[in-house]
Design goal:
Glucose Oxidase, domain 1
Length: 297
């Protein structure tokens, strides 16, 4: 079973975030040339309704005294909106979680919690805009039709945009899913979220080729705008990109990012790189975290 458990050491909690050293941070900060800031997180109540059986955020307004009010969050699923998958989120069957940890999350102690990432994911961001690339070729990418994006297509988009993803980068991949999801009839969204209708969307292929490309690019993280980075439904013969990337290779994944405004800004500026800043919650033992991410052009 190929894995990278010895690359950063068997006590590692950062995976490919180790590639964001001080030099990578400084390279990333140098990408901010205009100071324009663009939020990359959906509102906490989107997608509506939440997917994969997750609950919606429940907020209560509490009056503390005559002049003071607080929020009280009665229910929060950190992975129901734009989010990072922590290393406790997915295991590889009997082989375990990242670095071979086989204990259940409740028994891991201090290992693999998302709190280890709370110093911030700060680096160069690189956007690959799949719909814009396909439009330039005279074709259309439907974010809701189950299109599988191959490693060859990712490399082709990067080449056509003149970008070379490299060590420590945060690779952002846009499919256009959030806007397409919002465009569905509310009852249709409800049926999909409840499982009455199939949940189908475009995404990266689950096969070895995509995992190998991302590893060879040495990216620190991959943040997509669809619900799981990889295509749904996947091809069982090719396997799961989640299981390849998270527990075996330690590649950090972000999902449900809002990349539409960023794509327009990058196209207007004629460049596809920027400063990326994301700060996961300092939640001890957390399995995931809201994205809390911005781009600075």
């Amino acid at each position: 079973m190929p894995h990278a458990w010895d690359v950063f050491g068997r006590e590692d909690d950062l995976g490919t975030l180790n590639l964001i050293d001080d030099a990578a941070v400084l390279r990333g900060l140098a990408e901010a040339r205009t100071g324009r800031r663009i939020g990359l997180s959906l509102p906490l109540d989107e997608p509506d309704p939440p997917l994969f059986g997750r609950g919606a955020i429940a907020q209560e307004l509490v009056q503390l005294d005559r002049n003071t009010w607080d929020d009280r969050l009665l229910e929060v699923w950190p992975q129901s909106s734009s989010q990072w998958d922590g290393f406790r989120h997915v295991r590889c069957r009997e082989h375990g979680y990242w670095t071979g940890v086989t204990a259940d999350p409740a028994d891991m102690g201090d290992r693999l919690g998302v709190d280890h990432w709370s110093a911030g994911i700060v680096s160069r961001g690189v956007l690959l805009d799949l719909p814009r690339h396909r439009a330039g070729q005279g074709t259309v990418l439907d974010p809701l039709d189950g299109t599988e994006v191959s490693a060859a297509e990712l490399a082709d988009v990067a080449a056509s945009q003149g970008v070379d993803p490299g060590p420590g980068d945060v690779l952002c991949v846009r499919t256009g899913w959030p806007q397409a999801w919002r465009g569905l009839d509310p009852d249709r969204r409800r049926r999909i979220a409840s499982g009455e209708d199939d949940l189908v969307y475009a995404g990266l292929s689950g096969g070895e080729e995509v995992a190998a490309l991302l590893w060879d690019w040495h990216v620190a993280a991959v943040a997509c705008d669809n619900p799981s980075v990889e295509v749904r439904p996947g091809d069982p013969a090719k396997g799961s990109l989640h299981r390849r990337l998270i527990p075996l290779l330690g590649v950090v994944l972000g999902e449900l990012f809002d990349l539409d405004d960023l794509a327009e800004a990058c196209a207007d500026a004629g460049r596809w790189t920027f400063t990326f800043v994301g700060v996961p919650l300092n939640m001890p033992g957390g399995l995931g975290s809201p994205a809390n991410a911005v781009a600075i052009l």
